[in-house]
Structures are given as C-alpha cells and as structure tokens.
Amino acid sequence: MKEKVYKILENVTDPEIPVLTIQDLGIVRDVRIEGEEAIEIVITPTYSGCPAMSVIAAHIKMELMANGFKNVKVTEVFSPAWTTDWLSESGKKKLKEYGIAPPVAQARLEKLLFQVPPSVNCPRCGSDKTNLISEFGSTSCKSLMRCDDCLEPFDYFKCH
Amino acid sequence: MNLYNYILRMADNSLILGHRLSEWCGHGPVLEQDIAMTNMALDLIGQARSLFALAAEVQNEGRTEDDLAYLRDVMDFQNLLLVEQPNGDFAHTVVRQFFFSAFQLPFYQNLDTILTNPKSKIQNPKLDILRGIAEKAIKELTYHVRWSSEWVIRLGDGTDESHKRMQLAINSLYEYTVEAFMSDDVDKQAITEGYGVVLENIKPVFEETLKTVLTEATLTWPQNVYMQKGGKSGYHTEHLGYLLAEMQYLQRVYPHSVW
Questions:
Q1: Does A82 map to a domain?
Q2: Are the Cβ atoms of B136 and A48 closer than 8 angstroms?
C-alpha cells in the first residue's frame, strides 16, 4: 500500500524546479495510512518562507484523490530541518541536466563569517573556474554563480 | 499565556523586519542585492507565519496567523524598536540587518538548546514545534549574518563616502540595540516556565560579532549613549504606525477578506 502511495507521489514535482519530484527533494518525511481511503502525508518545508509549499500540498491532495483516496491530510513538520543531504542522487543528476549545479558537499555547520565559497563546476561547460556572485538567487534554495570560462551565469543549488 | 506573548514577540520582530525588507523590492541598488533583500524578507515572513500560527494555537481563542498579523494595532505589537526603523539609505538597511541578525541568531541557537534539553519535565507539544521553527530558522539566519557582515565590511572599509554613511547609520541605530538584551516580566516568566532564553548570556555573543566585524570594517560604535526602549511593551517610535497603515491596508478596508 505504502509503495503504491510513493509511486503516486512521483507525479508531484516542485513547481519552481519541475524536473525534481518531491521525493527527489527529500521533503516527503512520512506516509501514514489510516484505513481504506484515509491517508496522511507528512512533508517538511525546504525554507521557512518557501512559497512552493502550499502548491505542493495542493498537488499531493489532487494526485491522491484522483487515485481513490477520499480523505487526504497533508501535515508540515519543521524538525528535523530539511537539508540538501536528503537530495537523491537521481535528483542531483536531473538538476545538472536542467542547468542548475547540484550541491557539491555535505551540508555542515558553515563558517559564519568570511567563508570561502565552494568549488562548483559549471553545469554548462564543466569548468571549475567559477565565482559566486550572490548567495541569494531566484529562489531561496539557489545562489547565483558565474563561469569564468564560458562566461555564463548559472544557478547553484546551495548546500543547506 | 506567557508562552503566547513570548512567541508573539519573535513573530512580530520577524514580520516587521520582513516587511521593511520587502519595501526594497524593485528599488535595490543592483539587481543581485534587490534579490538578496527580498530573499531575507521571505525567510523572515516565513518564520513569522509559523510563529503566528503557533501563537494562535497557544492562545486557543480561534484566531489565525492572519488575524495576529493584520488585525492588531501599534500598541499590540511587541517588536524591538530596531526593526521598525525606516530603510533610509542602503547603509541604514545593512546596519539594521547586521544588528538584528547578530542578536537573532544566538537567540534562536540558545532557544534550540534550551528546548532540546528542557529543565522542566513537563511535555508540551507546542514547545516541540517552537524548537522545530528555531532549528529551521538558524540555518537561514546564518546567511543573514553573513550577508550583512560582508556589506558592513565592504562599505565601512570602502570609499570615504560609503565609510561616512555607514558610520552615520551605526551612530543613529545603535541606541535601539540594548532593548533586545533587557529582560522584562515576560522574559523572566519564560525562564521560570523553562523555555526562556537568558538574554544576558547572549549579549557577549552579540558584542563579539560587533567587535569582529566593525573592527574589520574600520568603523566604531558609540559609547555611553542613551538607550531607547519600549518596543517590547508596545511603546513604539512613530514609524511603526505608518508601516502598519500600509501593511494592514486591505484588512482595514475590507475586514476578514481572504484570497
């Protein structure tokens, strides 16, 4: 039963990075089956203010209802806090193909000040001569970088 | 009820500063910094939403996060005076962010520690949620401290003009910082009830961050100045009223309207 639910959830993608499913992102924390048609999905937000969460919750409900579940509840939990370490390997591969550099290291307690930016390979030409432009990008989970070889700017899914 | 007030304060700080930062949207000095400030606004408003929702649950009078954000007036807000100060020039925004983030990060770190190892054996699921919000916020606030520190250094140790403006911003905003570390009845009761941060303990952490960053930035901070207080008891500077008039406009004109 649970396997069937996880299979259905593969149809739910991140509205801002549509190549990633919510399971690639690691935001589905639990599936609780409560009787024949009732089900609870526990998800965790990537960032506190992520505007995609309400859309994702609505998609989960729609997908499960279309598959016969009448009573679908989506619950948000904050702890343990989401980390990019939960990103699946296939998710990282899909990100790179999509043009977003995947996180390069394990998320750890970063140095608070004067941190040396990570060495990230350009998703376009593969060069490691890249620079951080800004830690903040088009969405909370990305920072903005630039390749010194092909001179293109690109998004980096930052370690968090 | 003390827990309600305690959570509400954190929520008010995040909401008001989040709103201030959102006022930069479309007006940033360069696109990347416009995006950086609105990203931080998003973090803060996200934290505020979780905290307001929790406060409403604790209060248990049928109010929602929106009621708490939009249907309270100036005297009901308990945010620090610092966060309601106007954006001013970029220097004022950077310094306000630096002062606040240098307080907020160690505050949440302490809160997380206290709630992870509670002294009282009383289990309260609301406190578990609060700990989860703090744990999540800490990761985001790390970026805020770094962003604001780097700009303090870049502009302080920059041109004569940027140095001058940064020093002016520090001189005008420093007097709003001490309020954050002054315990009042709500803070003391929170400690008695087992979830309160001992504010005197995080003050040295705040001062150490200031010393490290301002020294690197070739800036000084004023000594022996009169310190403003009142925000935590609802006595605000004139700026908060104007901010709320804009932020709450729709709810004031069309009460209880929803999307």
A1: no
A2: yes
Gap from B170 CA to chain A (nearest CA, Å): 20
B-chain CB neighbours of A81 within 8 Å are 132, 135-136, 138-139
CB-based contact B38:B25 (threshold 8 Å): yes
Within 8 A by CB and 6+ apart from B249, the residues are none
Compare CB distances from B36 to A45, A48, A134 and report the shortest one's residue. Answer: A134
Res B236 pLDDT > 60: yes
The answer on pLDDT for B142 being more than 70 is yes
User: Are the Cβ atoms of A48 and B140 closer than 8 angstroms?
Assistant: yes
Q: What is the reported pLDDT for A35? A: 79
If asked whether residues A46 and A21 sit together in one domain, one would say yes
Range(s) of the domain holding residue A35: 2-76
Q: Which amino acid is at B223?
A: Q
* Mean pLDDT computed over every residue of chain B: 95
The separation between CA B129 and the C-alpha centre of its own chain, rounded to angstroms, equals 19
Q: What is the pLDDT along chain A (160 residues), one digit of tens a residue?
A: 889 999 999 999 999 999 999 999 999 999 999 877 789 999 999 999 888 899 999 999 999 999 989 999 999 999 999 999 999 999 999 999 999 999 987 766 666 777 777 789 999 999 999 999 999 998 989 999 999 999 999 999 988 8
Distance in Å, alpha carbon of A124 to nearest chain B alpha carbon: 21
Q: What angle do CA A51, A66, A56 make, to 5 degrees?
A: 10
| A81 domain-assigned | no
Of A24, A43, A76, which residue constitutes the final position of a domain?
A76
User: How are strands ordered across the β-sheet holding A142-147?
Assistant: A100-101, A153-157, A142-147, A130-134
Domains of chain B (ranges, CATH numbers): 2-253 (1.20.1260.10)
Q: Is A135 on the interface with B (CB under 8 A)?
A: yes
**Residues B4, B180: Cα–Cα separation, whole Å:** 18
Task: Tell me which chain A residues have a C-beta less than 8 angstroms from the C-beta of B142.
Answer: 110, 112
Q: pTM of the prediction?
A: 0.94
Whether the Cβ atoms of residue A63 and residue A11 lie closer than 8 Å to each other: yes
